[in-house]
Design goal:
Elements: H1 4-15, E1 25-27, H2 33-44, E2 50-54, H3 55-61, E3 71-75, E4 81-94, H4 100-103, H5 112-130, E5 139-150
Parallel strand pairs: 1-3
Antiparallel strand pairs: 2-5, 3-4, 4-5
Length: 151
């Protein structure tokens, strides 16, 4: 398996992007191996085309919110790079104002209720780790993306 650096270099070469093109992060989804690898499979199959994150998590980690045109490397749980995604849109909405039309782009749930249940769990657990508290009106960063490279 390629390292992150080798994978990125291959992306730049394959897509003829300039060497000054950067990625904002390499990451895996979720907090467990099973979930991370399952969500990666949804991305690679084209089902998952967006992700939701807590604005408070970005603030706690001192990270900037993704912006349209940003590149990120998605890895499996073990940190092996699997694809490059490009951010196509960012929306910030309170958790309790997210509709099924919005959350279904994540490709994870069949109903708004199941999305809310799984994301309440995730944000509550993440909040314990990072030091924020989930609330129903907590701002959620909804990032739409497209896969632009995979190997």
């Amino acid at each position: 398996m390629l390292t992150i650096k080798e994978f990125w270099r291959e992306f730049l070469t394959t897509t003829s992007k300039g060497s000054t093109t950067n990625y904002i992060e390499s990451f895996h989804f979720d907090l467990t191996e099973e979930a991370a690898n399952g969500l990666l499979a949804l991305v690679l199959s084209g089902v998952k085309q967006s992700t939701a994150g807590s604005l408070l998590a970005y603030e706690c980690k001192g990270e900037r919110i993704p912006q349209k045109g940003d590149y990120s490397i998605v890895t499996d749980w073990n940190g092996n790079p699997r694809c490059v995604i490009e951010t196509t849109n960012i929306s910030i909405l309170p958790f309790n104002e997210i509709t099924f039309d919005i959350c279904k782009r994540e490709g994870e749930d069949d109903t708004l209720e199941s999305w809310q249940r799984s994301h309440r769990r995730f944000f509550t657990e993440e909040g314990k780790i990072l030091g924020y508290e989930f609330t129903e009106n907590m701002p959620v960063v909804f990032e739409d993306f497209k896969v632009v490279f995979e190997k």
